Automatic annotation (TrEMBL):
Keyword Oxidoreductase: yes
Pfam families: Aldo_ket_red
InterPro entries per record: AKR, AKR2_Oxidoreductase, NAD(P)_OxRdtase_dom_sf, NADP_OxRdtase_dom
Keywords noted in UniProt: Oxidoreductase
GO molecular function: oxidoreductase activity
Domain NADP-dependent oxidoreductase: residue ranges: 16-315
Source organism: Paenibacillus violae
Keyword Oxidoreductase: yes
Protein name in UniProt: Aldo/keto reductase
Root EC class: oxidoreductase
Enzyme Commission number(s) from the entry: 1.1.1.-
């Protein structure tokens, strides 16, 4: 496993890390035993960073991480998120009393004394501009409840504003072959500010595995079903904001990236990690097989400059006009 520094913090984290939304819920059927086995395999391979949130399975993902990392609290870093258990538009959700309770609840589920990275979970820009939540996070950091804090953002504008706050040490961003906009200005400015970049949904909810067809279906409790058009939350969180059938079509046109690179998933994440401004990718998983496949990304050959240019042109000409939702 290869490691990269999280911005200007002291944390050196695995370039292939993992997110736990899928094992918590909202990605169809999952099995806790399989999830735990996957977590153990990842750690055995050198993964030392996992991302979760208090709303992933109503805290279940945090509990799974606590079970899997017991006795390894000093070696395995955990990032979790808060605010979406409440009304994200209500300033009371970000009050000291409320945030402190969110933090204490996560600490209890994680069975830890400190959260390594505490992230505001896709808040509205108005909340970020209000600024009070950052004062609360500074207090929690001073008390030793959290080591560092960051923001998970939906748009470049939100990310750029978050960079203006000196305590922000990480941005979590949707970035993949179907969603390249953040690389233009946000990533270089984050690098200059000493802020790490965590890339979520690197496979565009599975589109970039190349395994779906236009007739693929998803379970009722899978966000790829109930949020395919943004009915529950930002449409960009599902299929990178692309209509599903268009995404399948575009993924088929990208099949060439897998040549000499194992498969489309590994190639897609290799492309992300080829960007020097990225700290890590955090793909999801449900079992050991998916973990093992994602781990292969680190050994996948990089893209040439010519290939990079081809992929950027593809995004500009074939993809970006179909993306829905603010980004």
């Amino acid at each position: 496993m290869k490691y990269r520094q999280l911005g200007d913090t002291e944390l050196s984290i695995s370039e292939v890390s993992f997110g736990t939304w899928a094992i918590g819920g909202s990605w169809g059927l999952s099995n806790d035993d399989e999830a735990i086995k996957g977590l153990h395999l990842a750690m055995e391979a050198g993964v030392n960073f996992f991302d979760t949130a208090d709303v992933y399975g109503s805290g279940h993902a945090e509990e799974l991480l606590a079970k899997a990392t017991r006795g390894k609290e000093d070696d395995i870093y955990i990032a979790t998120k808060f605010c979406r258990a409440g009304d994200i538009y209500d300033s009371k959700t970000y009050s000291e009393e409320t945030v402190r309770q969110y933090c204490e609840d996560s600490l209890k589920r994680l069975n830890r004394e400190r959260i390594d990275l505490y992230q505001i979970h896709c808040p509205p820009l108005a909340i970020l501009k209000d600024g009070h939540v950052f004062e609360v996070l500074d207090k929690l950091k001073a008390e030793g409840k959290i080591r560092h804090y960051g923001v998970s953002v939906e748009t470049v504008e939100e990310g750029l504003f978050a960079l203006s706050k000196p305590g922000v040490k990480a941005l979590q961003v949707i970035y993949n072959l179907f969603r390249q906009k953040p690389a233009e200005t946000l990533f270089p400015q984050a690098k200059a500010a000493g802020v790490g970049i965590l890339v979520r949904l690197p496979l565009a909810s599975g589109l970039l595995t190349g395994k779906f067809t236009e007739t693929s279906t998803f379970a009722a409790d899978d966000h790829r079903n109930f949020n395919a058009d943004g009915a529950q939350f930002n449409v960009g969180e599902t299929f990178a904001g692309l209509p599903f059938t268009k995404g399948v079509e575009l993924a088929r046109e990208l099949a060439w990236i897998a040549e000499g690179r194992g498969n489309m998933a590994q190639a897609s994440m290799r492309w992300i990690l080829d960007n020097p401004n990225i700290t890590c990718v955090i793909p999801g998983f449900k079992n050991e097989r998916q973990v093992a496949d994602n781990l292969g990304t680190s050994q996948t050959p990089s893209f040439s400059g010519e290939e990079w240019a081809r992929l950027q042109t593809f995004y500009e000409d074939r993809v970006k006009d179909y993306i829905r939702g603010p980004y």
